[in-house]
Write a structure and sequence with these properties.
By secondary structure, this protein is of the alpha+beta class. The strands form seven sheets. A seven-stranded mixed beta sheet has the order 8-7-19-20-21-18-22, sandwiched between helices. A five-stranded parallel beta sheet has the order 10-2-1-14-24. Helix 4 runs antiparallel to helix 5. The protein starts with 9 loop residues before the first strand and ends with a helix. About 13% of the residues have low confidence.
Length: 503
Amino acid sequence: MQGMRGRTDRIVIIGAGLGGLACAIHLAAAGRQVVVLESTGRPGGLAGRLSIGGFEFDTGPSAITAPEILAETFAAVGENLADWLDLVPLDPTVRAHFPDGSTLDVIPDRDRMADEVRRVCGGREARAYLNYAAYAENVWGTLRRRLRDRSPSSPAELLRPALLGEALRLAAGGVRHGLEHRIGQFFTDPRCRRLFAVQSLLAGVAPHQAPALFTALPFLDPCGKVFFPRGGVHAMPAALAGAAQKHGVTIRYDTAAARLETHAGRARAVHTVEGERIPADVVVLPPVLAESDGELRPAAPAGGSGRASSSCVLVHLGSRQRYGRIAHHNLHFGRGWREPLADVARHRRPMRDPVLLVANPTRTDPELAPRDREIYQIMVPAPSEADAAAAARWRTGLAQRYAGELIATLEARGYLDLGQHIDLAHVVTPADWASPGHRPLRRTSTGGRGPDGHPSGGRRGSGPRVEASNIVFVGSGTRPGVGVPMVLMSGRHAAARITGARP
């Protein structure tokens, strides 16, 4: 792969998110001088941390999948992942709770998982699971291999449908239908169909609208191993930042980039809000920052053919109550399926009879909360709020009312007296995600779409306007930057674009 033309000795990376940190580590391994500018006081970006009253809430991903990609990032500078993070395997990775009272554990072992499906749904569905798991693994493995081998000239090039289409043809002999149809070709039991389709819903796309590429997500979660780091998922960017600094990367916290200085079609420096000029041969930044006349600001929502899709409501709870029948991650399905999907996609309103994802991270790491306290995080898909009137509804009482409805729903589904044992509650709504300092969970265009991680995701649609040949994009706003593994891959690809190394 040919590297970027011109000097590439001094790199300025804007943002200490997962993609930026991964890029910094790979560049440090290549001998580049790297400075990371982070506007907040800690690393992480979307994989952030909310600390309230002794409770430590992850604000982004709730677990780590495909840890081998994370290990590869550390290995780029000769570091061992195990020396930086204590990854606890989750078993089960998810417990699905259905309205008939049955539960189905998602187990990170294919034979044991088949036995679990057989116990709940019968032998026919167990055989279907084994076939589906092999199919999903093939999609993910082929997609990852082709993204690596194709060595695109920039992260944005990964948007090209030809590349994704090639991976799908290789994996499945041609995919003509979407995710829900594909799942229906394997499973007949509605519980299995819901379980293996729900990942796309949590990523912001209704299963009947999602492309079959989303089968890669079930391999990473319901078919693959899932880990939770001691200290929470935010321990991951903290570890990446530590490894980067150990190997010469300068990370400057509480330093916000204000504008780019360009000359003759190239960026020459980054100017901070405080007025400092930092010279740069190459600038790396997330596409959620748009540049116009040199000024850096959050990108405006996509226009034209782009359309807002879905966001989420996220409720962080500190509680005195512990429940014995749940797992670290829990999916709670209501009696309806298409109806709650229509609430979000068609009627643009909060879900009734919602599909709920409930995380209980203190089940794995009690140190995330005060003694004898638990953390519960409730996530439910919701319509994104692109206009001021819709956002105002959340800020004038809807947030607290809806959070109360979600708590009541969970009480009806087995979380007895949950509302009576809450020490604190913090609600994040679609209006919050869309405000400055946050990012929308999902924006889609009418073109091809890829899977996002939950509960965080990236911006899609009209890209940032940057007219400089030595600017590279990284992170969850690029493809394959969707979910933790893909964001880390985007960092490696961005570094390879600069250095000419094989990604």
